[in-house]
């Protein structure tokens, strides 16, 4: 699809700038709101977004970004309350998808109010674990509640190595979705060749069991 | 999965390159093709025509500079207007800009053909085929080139433009000694100063190339600073070069001679006083060479410009989406380029050069009115928008830009207006058909603002 989105990014810090860059790379239009003149100058130099200079939590400022013409708002300042306020205000101004950044533990009621929540803490933790543990297992994404998608390489001496899925009993709460090349959906005849990678959906409670079977 | 539609060009153009993109398009054809036509209409006051047009253009150039510094989008004037106005207004802007580039392309192709044949004459070669044949061929050649390759190399364009400027400066340097100020009497044709106005409308297209800089913004280094500079620098340089060349041409060949020479006026003026340049031969050959060279590079620039506008509109689904796709192998907006080529060829084949020039000028004027309006509206709508470049003495320049552009438009003849209206009607039909297919109301009912009642605010007062 070449259709481009129009996105408001509130916050021009490292996260906001990077978000704007990635969106621009994909051909979307970005309006960025940043309060601090020095930071807005830094973003302006990148030439990836038009910039409204002001406090995004102020409706008079937010309105200048024209939420009624936008597809989504990403509130990614380092202040959770500001982000929440931006999302709420944008929703009242227009029908718009809202995404907010949180740094600490999320308020459990957020999902009722905003469409997407980005937890910098758990993102950082996940990436950190990926880097620490190394190549064998990578966490791809947290789907929502407790399910994680993992990219797992079958280890040489793992219990399940060389077996078909019909022979292996994976714990309830786990599912081999597809091999990591994206070529084959896992089925009973799928052979778990050592060295091959698979995408596995796992509920948190059985993660270690799955690891044991596939990694040894 | 590869996302061919998301390929984006690298930032490789320096300030010099970006400036030359603008100068390349402006000095390209206007100076060689339009000088004779302007003199025919206004007499020696043609020099005043170019000076005034340069002034009028500067107001709009300031507006472009402000918009380009604040809105980082490829697509030129269309992209800025899209940011500020509702979809139908942006459509009109894009539709007319697209047409302007295509018409300008036709004009440059015709200018190329006349000068190419003249170039042949100078060497005693009678080229087969007429003006139409060569104009059509050069369009096909450049469209094909642009269709199969994205490498619109900035440095090659820069070199070509520098050579053009150099040739013209050589012309000026030799010619200045032979200028006879008596040729400027009487200054106004038939003693009537008003003849300047229609001549201004006719030649206005000469100064519309700088907005090509705004169509390649994402390829410029340090764009928020360099693009406004490049726009203003290219306009200033072009005006100076134009005035020098027209002064010399008028002062040597005289108004009558220039008017009679039409599209090859400058080359004929050069014949009078230029020494021989080996291996090119006479001065006229040098100028004809410059003209052939210039019209080609200007043609190349507008082929790129026209396809970028169609591409930008296709991506926003304001034109059929096929126009907004890159070709999977060539990586170029092939459909947009091909569509532009068809219109260019039709314009080359059926519309006389004077009408072609008028039509392109008229659409330029209308487009520039909308651009100036955009600056004013954006200042009101988004007062806190970061504007790395701001129009000085706001709001005088954009207001003057609007008034003067409309004034010049009023002096363009009725035939041209009729053709223009015709093209707008075609646009309206396309727009309505497309919006019906998208299942949207064609014309939004007013500003879609969500109503929020104002909360009561109690302002504490000091007693």
UniProtKB/TrEMBL annotation, chain A:
Protein role: Part of a potassium transport system.
GO-annotated cellular components: plasma membrane
Keywords, ordered alphabetically: Ion transport, NAD, Potassium, Potassium transport, Transport
Record's protein name: TrkA family potassium uptake protein
Ranges of residues in domain RCK N-terminal: 4-118
Source taxon at top rank: Archaea
PANTHER family: POTASSIUM CHANNEL PROTEIN 2-RELATED-RELATED, TRK SYSTEM POTASSIUM UPTAKE PROTEIN TRKA
MF annotations from Gene Ontology: potassium ion transmembrane transporter activity
Pfam family for this entry, one: TrkA_C
Keyword Ion transport recorded: yes
Domain RCK C-terminal: 137-216
Automatic annotation (TrEMBL), chain B:
Entry keyword annotation includes Transmembrane: yes
Primary location recorded for the protein, binned into one broad class: membrane
Coiled coil: none
GO CC field: plasma membrane
Membrane topology: Multi-pass membrane protein
Presence of keyword NADP: no
This protein's UniProt keywords: Cell membrane, Membrane, Transmembrane, Transmembrane helix
Subcellular location: Cell membrane
Molecular function in Gene Ontology: transmembrane transporter activity
Domain of life: Archaea
Transmembrane segments: 12-39, 45-65, 98-117, 123-147, 159-179, 199-218, 230-250, 284-311, 332-353, 359-379, 391-411, 417-434
Protein name: APC family permease
Organism: Haloarcula limicola
